[in-house]
Amino acid sequence: MDQDNSSVDSIFTNATESPKPSEAHWDEAILLGLQIFLSAILAIITLATVLSNAFVIATIFLTRKLHTPANFLIGSLAVTDLLVSILVMPISIVYTVSKTWSLGQIVCDIWLSSDITFCTASILHLCVIALDRYWAITDALEYSKRRTMRRAGLMIAVVWVISISISIPPLFWRQAKANEEVMECLVNTDQISYTLYSTFGAFYVPTVLLIILYGRIYVAARSRIFKTPVSSGKRFTTAHLIQTSAGSSLCSINSSASNQESHLQPGGGTSGGGGGGRGGSPLFNSVKVKLADSVLERKRLCAAREKKATKTLGIILGAFIVCWLPFFVGTLVLAICKECWFHPVLFDVFTWLGYLNSLINPVIYTAFNDEFKLAFHKLIKFKRCY
User: Fold this and answer.
1) CA quadruple 90, 96, 99, 101: dihedral sign
2) What GO CC terms are in its UniProt record (predicted)?
3) Which residue has the higher pLDDT, 115 or 269?
4) Maximal CA-CA distance, the chain
5) 357 in Cβ contact with 323 (< 8 Å)
6) For residue range 177-223, what is the model confidence (pLDDT) as tens digits?
């Protein structure tokens, strides 16, 4: 009886524990389908990043009106993001999907160095663009004299020097493993000093700088928009619109000459003089009302554009933080807390979220700029812009 029971139990156990060939084949098919789907999604993101940045570069190159130092900085940002999409993202697709590095140590070193250099340069470009806007808004007259292509080129050179200095150190300790077989290609977070140096240099310090700069831009914009137009006893004002590189604007209300009103009166008389008296002629009163309405309308236009510019600044800063904060927080946590652990899939999500910023940058910096949108339309119609 006991023997029969044991035989039944043995048969039941074998029936329940032995995997069926059809089930194993089904699991492999599901895994292959997920890999193909993931590869397609990442490939679409990469292609969109290539095309959007290429369009920005072509638009600036073909449109003479966009040949300004500010747009030169935006073009350099587009070149950097294009390098990310061409040299970094395709290899990352293969590594993310396969989960195994099969390209050797040398390619690993080149890929990691390119990844760190180009992504850091992309982030630092946001800082120099913000710095350029800040100077243009807070010191418009003086900075317009110093805002040259040479100065923009110098700022770009500084960006690349800092980016390369952040990417070089890992090459030294990876050379010791050049002849070993490599199954994974990751930045070594055991070097806590380098992790702190790279994360703060590439993200945390630039983030603080961006917050400070955009905060001051916002305050300066609001203070000028709501500044009282009548000052120092002068009756009328003129509005001057200062257009920045990416569609943001600043309306500075400057007082007009004290004799502006006299030019509007017949005979050159002033409102306090004998020509028009306090009440003035009906013709002069009509002109005065029309001028006041014009100034008010200009101020409304400036306020609307400044509101749009402020919204753009918020989108730029918000997109940057959302895209890169998870990756750099995760990198810093892994370096400081040795017992902490992130699922590899989660870290892949953080990495690609950072790459996504290279797709968002050209959209934000051009979609809110009327000049860029017009140039885009002409470029699509194959018309050279002048």
Assistant:
1) positive
2) plasma membrane; synapse
3) 115
4) 131
5) yes
6) 555 667 788 877 677 888 899 999 999 999 999 999 988 888 877 77
At residue 189, the 3 state secondary structure works out as coil
**Spatial contact of 376 and 65, defined as CB atoms under 8 Å apart:** no
Tokens encoding 320: 């940057």
Tell me the backbone φ, ψ of residue 250, rounded to 5 degrees: -135, 125
Domains and CATH numbers, the chain: 37-270+280-380 (1.20.1070.10)
Tokens of 243: 């257009």
Determine contact, residues 362/78, Cβ cutoff 8 Å: yes
268 DSSP 8-state letter: G
Q: Is the dihedral of CA 274, 278, 281, 286 positive or negative?
A: positive
Average pLDDT, the chain: 76
Residues 6+ apart with CB under 8 A from 95: 101, 185
Question: Please, which residues have CB within 8 angstroms of residue 25's CB and are 6 or more apart in sequence?
Answer: none
The strand pairing partners of 63, in sequence order, are: 385
Percent helix, percent strand, percent coil in the chain, to nearest 5:
75, 5, 20
241, 249 Cβ separation under 8 angstroms: yes
Query: Which long-range contacts does 97-101 make (Cβ < 8 Å, 24+ apart)?
Result: 97/35, 97/38, 97/39, 97/42, 99/344, 100/183, 100/184, 101/182, 101/183, 101/184, 101/185
DSSP string of 31-68, one letter each residue = HHHHHHHHHHHHHHHHHHHHHHHHHHHHHHHHBGGG-S
Instruction: Give the 3-state secondary structure of residue 185.
Output: coil
Backbone φ, ψ for residue 372 (5° rounding): -65, -40
Spatial separation of the C-alpha atoms in residues 245 and 131, rounded to whole Å: 12
Burial 297-313 (b: 16+ CB within 10 A, else e): ebbeebeebbeebbebb
Q: What 8-state DSSP symbol labels residue 19? A: P
CB 235, CB 265: distance < 8 Å: no
Rounded average pLDDT over 260-265: 44
d(CA 220, CA 136): 11
Do 237 and 230 form a contact (C-beta atoms < 8 A)?
yes
- Predicted model pTM: 0.74
Residues 110 and 87: their CA atoms lie apart, in Å, by 10
Residue 44: name the closest of 346, 352, 365 by CA: 352
